[in-house]
Amino acid sequence: MNNRETFRARTGPAFRRTVGLFRTVLPMLAGILLLIGLLHQFLSDSYPKWFSGNYLLDPLIGAVAGSVSFGIPITSYVAGGELLQAGVSLLAVTAFVMAWTTVGLVMIPIEASELGLRFTVIRNLVNFVFSLLVAIATVLTLGFLP
Amino acid sequence: MTARRHRSSGKIGGRVKFLLFVLGLYGVTALFDPALAMAALGYFAVMLVKVVPVLALVFVVLLLTNIFLNPEKIRRHLGRESGLKGWLYAVAAGLFISGPPYLLFPMLGELKRHGARNGLLAAILYNRNVKIHFLPAIVYYFGLRYTVVLSFYIILFSLINGKLVELLVGDDSRPA
Asked: What is the pTM of this model?
């Protein structure tokens, strides 16, 4: 009985808090989705053109391309697989795949509004550097494996 | 207090300004290339249809979080005193939580307001890269060896990432 009363007492304020959160998030969410819709028209199907064939420069290009891209991780694997087939190095493709989901330039407004601007900027900068480090570590390790 | 309330009601919030800015971009695009603006709107509509059911689920999760998870519990599992267990929870949450980041951020923001550590939130976000249900796809495109090695480094670097972010941002975890 006590538990039921506690649950009822908590539900009202929790519902109002959640509705309030949604009211603040929805305009930002609509803005992000609209922005993704617009950027998608410029970015889709153009990735292979971005790479230069330079083994040292391409990982950096991959990380930048991944940073401005968006979508669920599986989309980055499909795009990465196509880049590999187009002759882009594994190092560059791995940096691209890593930056795709860990760095989100398009998402910065919504991330900053929820988690703070300082957290967002530092996290994205650290993740950009880490996308290169993880790519290097992965490719080096694969090179050592039999 | 009254002045603050008056100021907040009279001004347009940053989030609405951002929405207006993006709508402005659409307006400019439509002036130069109406077909492209329409295609972008079509893509937006497709995403919106996909997002609405997930949004309903997010609402339920947030509501349950607000009912059952009080700041005390969050602090114990993801807060300052969570210790090694907190990092394990962060890795597991990152691996299993699914969904686009624009829906994940409000949930993580709510955890932060309840007292979760910055480092653990960063680790959760970093581990989004390894998704159990996406593993067959990455194996298909890159091979099993690559998948195992990359997944190992993502989990390892997520911990370093969390520590580094916390070092640079600071640990401001506190109850709401």
From this structure: 0.75
A54 min Cα distance to partner chain B (Å): 21
Inter-chain CB proximity A74 and B14 less than 8 Å:
no
Q: For position B155, what pLDDT does the model report?
A: 94
- Which residue of A4, A5, A6, A17 is the best one to mutate when testing the B interface, meaning the one whose CB has the most B CBs within 10 A? A17
Does B36 contact chain A (CB < 8 Å)? yes
For chain B positions 136-165, those within 8 Å of chain A (CB to CB) are 137-138, 140-142, 145-146, 149-150, 153-154, 157, 160-161, 164-165
Q: How would residue B8 be classed by pLDDT, with cut points 50, 70 and 90?
A: very low
Query: What is the residue whose two structure tokens read 């709510």?
Result: B110
Domain extent, residue A57, equals: 44-144
Taking contacts as CB-CB distances below 8 angstroms, the residues of chain B near A142 are 145-146, 149
> What letter represents residue B32's amino acid?
F
- Contact assessment for residue B88 and residue B132, using Cβ atoms and an 8 Å cutoff: no
**Token duo for residue B44:** 């937006």
Q: Is residue A119 part of a domain?
A: yes
For the segment A53-73, what is each residue's pLDDT rounded down to a tens digit? 777 888 999 999 888 877 667
Q: What is the pLDDT of residues B62-104, one digit of tens each?
A: 788 777 766 666 667 777 777 888 899 888 888 877 667 777 8
Report how far apart, in Å, the C-alpha atoms of A92 and of each of A64, A89, A130, B100, B138 are: 10, 5, 13, 24, 16
Structural domains in chain A (count): 1
Asked whether residue A81 is domain-assigned, the answer is yes
Q: Do A74 and B23 touch (CB under 8 A)?
A: no
CA angle B79, B118, A139 (to 5 degrees): 120
Residue A7 lies in a domain: no
Q: What is the pLDDT of residues B98-131, one digit of tens each?
A: 667 777 888 888 888 888 899 999 999 998 877 7
